[in-house]
Amino acid sequence: MTHSTTEPANFTGAAPKAGPMLAADGRPLKKSLARALRRQKLRALMLVAPLLIFVLVTFIAPIADMLFRSVENQIVSETLPETVMALQEWNGESDIPDAAYDAIYFDLFTAAEAKQHTRLGTRLNYEQTGISSLFRTSGRQLDDIGDDVHDALEDINPAWDEPAPWYQMMNAGDRPVDTALLDTKMFDMRALTGEVLEGDLGFAPAREVSDLLPRTAAAYTSWAIYTALVDGDIVAEEDPWESVFAALASDLQSGADVSGYSGPGADMLAEAAANLDALPAVDFRNVMVGIDEDWGALENWQTIKLYSPDYTPGYFLNSVDMQNGIDGAQMRPENERIYITLFIRTLYLSLVITGSCILLSYPVAFLLSNLPARSANLLMILVLLPFWTSLLVRTSAWKVMLQQQGVINDVLVWLGLVADDSRLVMINNQTGTIIAMTHILLPFMILPMYSVMSTIPPYYVRAAKSLGATNWTAFWRVYFPQSIPGIGAGSILVFILAIGYYITPEIVGGTKGVFISNRIAYHISSSLNWGLAAALGTILLAVVLILYWAYDRIVGIDNVKLG
After folding, report:
1. Residues 279-304: what's their mean pLDDT?
2. Is it the case that residue 2 has pLDDT exceeding 80?
3. Are residues 267 and 377 in the same domain?
4. Residues 100-130: b if buried by 16+ CB within 10 A, e if exposed
5. What is the C-alpha separation between 435 and 425, in angstroms, rounded?
6. How many domains does the structure of the chain reveal?
7. Whether residue 434 has pLDDT greater than 90
């Protein structure tokens, strides 16, 4: 017998390599799938883009702006740039340096011409009471010393009263330009006015003059920039500010040697230097203290120095009843501490209101979820009925009902439960706030509870009873645990609404029932201290987020349901 064997075929040459899988369009399948996925993500992004933009503009951007305003403090450095520099080396306790008086005269003069000095006074008045009037009154009297110098120079040479000699002397023309001075003053003027300063200045400070008369060149340059780019006038045709005359007298009295100067106006300068006795003595310390003796008070200069940085923790310190001092943060006097008390009261009353809403809402939601649909719908209309009435009207109605001669007290007296001369005080205190806000926020607790309770199968309780459980045991062990998600959802909703309410506490709370939100509204609409309002709002937001985090850690936010 012969056996035949089948041998494998012999292949010659290299085996063909497997190529990449291709899609229908001939492209590699992997790249085609990645491209399709990118298109899907782009389409999804385009669909949610309107909502995303809306959230960014109406929610994220205001919060970011609030956070920025709570630390922003650029108004001091923008309004008093030279003063801030002069106070950098001052320790805040020794005698105020002469350079600070020199700087604040010119800074304040420019700010007064730009009508910005009152804004600065208002800002600093938040930290030092009375400093606002100091800036306001000083701005009206700063030109007095300049007028006196102007008259004296005009007596020496009438040409000082003409704009042309000033321009010829101060303008560089064919001479080297003091670029550093020009750039510095342009930057300071932009920051002060908040405007984009563009156009033909028609002036450039001569370096020769700025080296010889530094204060005069700086004052004239500030005036020239404001005249040309803010007022839109021609520098060569306008009379300079009185501060320029005061600066010239100060430079000459400080020992400026004009004998070697041979440029435009050399004869006028030499004549003025030769008649120094005819010029009023310009000592800016005496000038400022003469305007108002409070310029000699150490605490006013300390306030300027403390709040000269562009960013400050001062608003947050004020929010927790502290203040910024030379020695660091310190507590305010006891009679000025209000914000910590308001924060504690806000948290306490919000928790009480949330608890009262839970106690009142649970029976109502339980009844709604266990009644026939027709009866439940009728009662739900009554629950929603308050939404058809203005919040202000409902709050005002409680103000009428809760007062001592109101409906509730009249009924209690009529029933004999309260004596007529011992009527209950339920308005302008915490009691009125709790009652009114509980009524207003009650529907926000009922609706989440009802939506969860309506999904609990009724046969669970019946099964528990059939196994021998009492009504209480069946409720507590079977029904209540399933309703906790509704309690959690309603509690978060009511608590967050309560902690930010300000209309109702303002109307019925008086001085003892207002929330921190009332103080925030006051600073936004009345005192215009937006920085402090932003700091208070930021702290309130942080408190809510911390409580939310704690709730998530203890209960679990995943257990909160709306049905």
Report:
1. 93
2. no
3. no
4. bbbbbbbbbbbbbbbebbebbbbbbbbbbee
5. 12
6. 2
7. yes
Are 156 and 271 in contact by the 8 Å Cβ rule? The answer is: yes
What one-character DSSP code corresponds to residue 114?
T
pLDDT at 334: 87
Residue 68 near residue 535, CB atoms below 8 Å: no
Three-point CA angle 478, 482, 486, nearest 5°: 145
**pLDDT tier, 25 (very low <50, low <70, confident <90, very high otherwise):** low
pTM of the model: 0.80
Residue 17 lies in a domain: no
Per-residue pLDDT at 464 exceeds 80: yes
Same domain, residue pair 296 and 351: no
Q: What is the largest CA-CA distance in the chain?
A: 148
Q: Per-residue pLDDT for 16 more than 60? A: no
In one-letter notation, the amino acid at residue 330 is Q
Q: Are 480 and 473 in contact (CB under 8 A)?
A: no
Q: Which residue, of 262, 295, 310, is where some domain finishes?
A: 310
* Same domain membership, residue 421 and residue 542: yes
Report residue 39's pLDDT band, with 50, 70 and 90 as the boundaries.
confident
436 and 370 together in one domain: yes
- Alpha-carbon 126 to chain mean position: 14
DSSP string, 513-553: S--HHHHHHHHHHTS--HHHHHHHHHHHHHHHHHHHHHHHH
Please give the Cα distance from 153 to 156 (Å, whole number): 5
377 and 526 assigned to the same domain: yes
Residues 177/205, Cβ–Cβ less than 8 Å: yes
Q: What is the mean pLDDT of residues 161-166?
A: 93
Q: What is the CATH number of the domain that holds 469?
A: 1.10.3720.10
Residue located via tokens 């609706």? 447
For the residues 206-233, what does the mean pLDDT come to? 94
DSSP assignment of 441-472: HHHHHHHHHHHHHTTS-THHHHHHHHTT--HH
Mean pLDDT for 140-145 is 91
For residues 455 and 489, is the Cβ–Cβ distance under 8 A?
no
- Same domain, yes or no: 305 and 403: no
515 phi, psi to nearest 5 deg: -105, 175
Looking at per-residue confidence, does 522 or 555 come out higher?
A: 522
What pLDDT does residue 113 have?
93
| Torsion on CA atoms 174, 180, 182, 183, rounded to nearest 10 | 130
One domain, residues 238 and 351: no
Burial 255-280 (b: 16+ CB within 10 A, else e): ebebeebebbbeebbeebbeeeeebb
Query: 117-125 vs 98-113: helix axis angle to the nearest 10?
Result: 120
Specify which residues 322 forms β-bridges with: 331
Instruction: Select from 265, 294, 310 the last residue of a domain.
Output: 310
Domain span including residue 379: 339-559
